[in-house]
């Protein structure tokens, strides 16, 4: 068996892949998602309680702001309510006003746990 290398357009002439001097590439413009990016507020449940967002059809950026800094602070996420696939943040103590952000895949769960730690604000922005 031999490995096959794709042949560029125009045969094996590498020059066919290169731009001519002065030629400009016009990339496709992105699309604004401002009208279709939902925002969910107060998304963090109580400490040690796994949370699944109300919209399970899209990914979200989740932002958690620590209020009271306790003696332990952990954030995990996972594809089940155990939320134990990935440890996102583990520290001996949360830091007051610290913001933890992460992209939560559609339908996944997240969990925060803190000893004497509180979350003052939590928001999720659709991706």
Structure characterization notes:
The protein is mostly beta strands and 127 residues long. It has a single domain (37-126), classed as Jelly Rolls (Sandwich), CATH 2.60.120. It contains no helices and eight strands. A four-stranded antiparallel β-sheet has the order 1-8-3-6, with no helix packed on it. A hairpin with a 7-residue loop joins strand 4 (72-78) and strand 5 (86-91). The two termini are 43 Å apart. The model has no long low-confidence stretch (mean pLDDT 83).
What's a quick, concise take on this entry?
The mean pLDDT is 83.
CATH top level label: Mainly Beta
**Looking across the biggest beta sheet, what order are the strands in?**
1-8-3-6
Rg value: 23 Å
Overall helicity? under 10%
End-to-end distance: 43 Å
Shape: elongated
- Report the order of strands and helices: EEEEEEEE
Question: In the CATH classification, which architecture applies?
Answer: Sandwich
Q: Which structural category do the helix and sheet elements fall into?
A: mainly beta
**How many separate domains?**
1
């Amino acid at each position: 068996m031999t490995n096959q290398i794709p042949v560029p357009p125009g045969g094996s002439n590498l020059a066919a892949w290169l731009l001519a001097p002065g030629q400009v590439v016009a990339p496709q413009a992105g699309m604004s998602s401002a009208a279709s990016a939902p925002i969910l507020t107060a998304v963090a449940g109580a400490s040690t309680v796994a949370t699944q967002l109300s919209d399970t059809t899209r990914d979200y950026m989740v932002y958690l702001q620590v209020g009271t800094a306790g003696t332990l602070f952990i954030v995990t996420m996972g594809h089940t309510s155990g939320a134990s696939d990935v440890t996102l943040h583990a520290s001996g103590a949360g830091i007051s006003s610290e913001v933890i952000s992460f992209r939560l895949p559609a339908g996944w769960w997240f969990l925060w746990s803190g000893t004497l730690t509180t979350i003052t604000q939590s928001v999720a922005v659709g991706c």
